[in-house]
């Protein structure tokens, strides 16, 4: 039986964190290929360190996406994030591109041919999760850890109320107190944020960021007993890839549910949606969210599994954690019928062959509002009515 009163902690990182810089560049490359050719194949990895970016991977798409275009995409991403520092500058950084053609052996297993449907781009397991802790049906700790950094980033870019002195690199961590299974407050708040004025003390940085954090969190969640750790190591001036090497795909728990749910192990960023690491994880979230939105359970964990070159999922597993009002085995059967969970079926249902991925590279792939152009389509709850009817 799950404990009803406990503490749970999740962390997030800003778009200027070294790993997130790399996620952003890799997803910008994915978007460029999909914008030029919706059926393009991309597996793009990025490394970033002091004034150097290395982009490598496998692609299959139009020749219009040249090496110079990829370099331009990287510089644009770095500039938008806000890096104009001596050790990492959008204009001065050296950018090397080592993208080459996708393996023909992979392509033959994945592509549709004759009577064979398109297969999964790799084997693996993917998880989706939803719960009723927030209106977005996300676990509260990760949702608010993201929101703190997103709000601070908006303030930094708008140069609002002292935030102009903050740098792009930041990390947050929120410890949430649960009573009777519901989030009711925060006991610890951690924020480490880069600052451009090297004379600022931790106390002065806290004075800048605390009003934003208090405004972000629900009313009453911060109490006199809440412990704050703002730049606990002291000064944080050297940040981003100049301070720490970054790589694509190293923040998979930040990208998903903050540790509140299992993770299959595959990263999302840099991959086109034929890769089930990405698309099936989105589909699993979509299904889990619609289960909770339909009122069928308070919490839902859903697993899908795939084999490379095989179209249909090998298995589907649903756990309602004792909070459901339907039979889980029956629900699994209904979900398999409700959506075509082959790679092509997922892409069609969720409209994933679009340049919608750079925006996912920071502040989480889940718990976001669906965009009018199809971004975050996996956050829709348009399946909830169908599930209710099928299980009534």
TrEMBL record:
Residue ranges of every copy of the S-adenosylmethionine synthetase C-terminal domain listed in the record: 238-380
EC number per UniProt: 2.5.1.6
Limits of the S-adenosylmethionine synthetase N-terminal domain: 6-104
Cofactor(s) of this protein: K(+); Mg(2+)
Cross-referenced InterPro entries: ADOMET_SYNTHASE_CS (IPR022631), S-AdoMet_synt_C (IPR022630), S-AdoMet_synt_central (IPR022629), S-AdoMet_synt_N (IPR022628), S-AdoMet_synthetase (IPR002133), S-AdoMet_synthetase_sfam (IPR022636)
Alphabetic keyword roster: ATP-binding, Cytoplasm, Magnesium, Metal-binding, Nucleotide-binding, One-carbon metabolism, Potassium, Transferase
Molecular function as annotated in GO: ATP binding; magnesium ion binding; methionine adenosyltransferase activity
Entry's localization field: Cytoplasm
A UniProt-annotated Pfam family: S-AdoMet_synt_N
Metabolic or biological pathway: Amino-acid biosynthesis; S-adenosyl-L-methionine biosynthesis; S-adenosyl-L-methionine from L-methionine: step 1/1
Gene Ontology terms: biological process: one-carbon metabolic process; S-adenosylmethionine biosynthetic process
Residues annotated to bind ATP: 17, 169-171, 235-236, 244, 250-251, 267, 271
Main location: cytoplasm
Reactions this protein catalyses: L-methionine + ATP + H2O = S-adenosyl-L-methionine + phosphate + diphosphate
UniProt similarity note: Belongs to the AdoMet synthase family.
Assembly, per entry: Homotetramer; dimer of dimers.
The name this protein goes by in its record: S-adenosylmethionine synthase
Gene behind this protein: metK
